[in-house]
Amino acid sequence: MPAFPQAAKTALADSQLRHNVGAATATIRGKRAAVVDELDDWAQLREAGAAIKAHTLSYLDDYLERFERAVTEAGGTVHWARDAAEANRIVTGLVRDTGESEVVKVKSMATQEIELNEALAEAGISAWETDLAELIVQLGEDAPSHILVPAIHRNRAEIREIFREHMGEAGVPAPADLTDDPVRLAEAARRHLREKFLRAKVAVSGANFAVADSGTLVVVESEGNGRMCLTMPETLISVVGIEKLVPSWQDLEVFLQLLPRSSTGERMNPYTSTWTGVRADDGPQDFHVVLLDNGRTDALADEVGAQALRCIRCSACLNVCPVYERTGGHAYGSVYPGPIGAILNPQLRGTESDVDRALPYASSLCGACYDVCPVAINIPDVLVHLRTRVTEEHGPRDAPLDAAMGAASWMFGDRRRMELAQRVAAAGRRFAGRAGRFGRLPPPLSRWTDARDAPAPAAESFRAWWKRTRGDPS
């Protein structure tokens, strides 16, 4: 995967991608704004969500042990995974122990993070995604591009062709007369998945939340596929990031108001499934939880960056981000795209790769992501913090640009130097074109003018106007 600047150029050249992503994010953005405006206490709910998450992360070791005890007492088994390799070994071993060669999956973002499907395939085990969007991505041999809607980069016509060409290779084929009508597409997906639900003996899930006091896991979804995965198989394996904990059911109530409004723009999720341990003759009889670290402990140790672990994966920040809206999610090189991915990935994976070093710069720092975040993650602050970290660990990212910024810092550091620069800039107006804009500026400023128009500076600066009309401000 190329670094973000190169990947973004490719994405920007794809007009169909920009149309698909732009239309979808605008729709979700509008729905979210409408349901959030219904609540007079939204700001207080947001503060409560942030406080609960911050408290839990501060005492995470205690809550993890409490959760393990509760799961064990309820008849489940807890496994601890330091990294992706260990998590994959645990899950693969558990599936092999059942003697089965396939699993159905739901809420699998953490499993995509660790590339579990690939690890299972190497062990001869087929993993079937059951979320509609993730099914589209899997059948199309694609990668997810959005936290909430992994196939947001596809339109209905493209989905129809994927179903017609690839569904038969993985099970029940799509009808020969399939159209791009959403009802027909959903019907084809249900027929295809129903066979797998009825046959599968093992399911793999993620979780939106894990309740420490009771050992309960929670999945919220819109299609019912989660309910099928969580109730019908004989064995259930849940892969859960250690940051997903909340202390109690009372705390969970806050997030079940924040999450649906921030993600799908709904007042309540159509399906909210909770499960606690094992009950005789009711649901899976063999239940395992794999608690995944995979860089989260390192992120927790960062005083500024740790707030990224408050994320509840709602995707609100993606839907308002002007950068994501134009590039889509693949340019971020991770299952976590958009603003939250730009701060989460470099902390989980480190900054050794070109992809992760570039991500903190994949933002205009406009602050829209912070405004909509339901748990008040200050993403712009973390982005600036990570840019500093990248520079400290790897040196200047762009020597000419850094030199230009250093010169600007020197100029802004003294009033007299700034006033001189303003007079020089005003004198340069005569080189602007008739439209009052410059053409291509010399490097490194050409990096700006190659993509944008540079307006000519004002004939008179504010300082000069004030001095002329009000007297010397000094």
TrEMBL record:
It holds the Pfam family Fer4_8. Gene3D superfamilies: Alpha-helical ferredoxin (1.10.1060.10), NagB/RpiA/CoA transferase-like (3.40.50.10420). Transmembrane segments: none annotated. One of its GO terms (molecular function) is 4 iron, 4 sulfur cluster binding. Residues 308-377 form the 4Fe-4S ferredoxin-type domain. Residues 422-468 form the Lactate utilization protein B C-terminal domain. Residues 64-292 form the LUD domain. GO terms for biological process: lactate metabolic process. Keywords: 4Fe-4S, Electron transport, Iron, Iron-sulfur, Metal-binding, Repeat, Transport. This is Iron-sulfur cluster-binding protein. It comes from Saccharopolyspora montiporae.
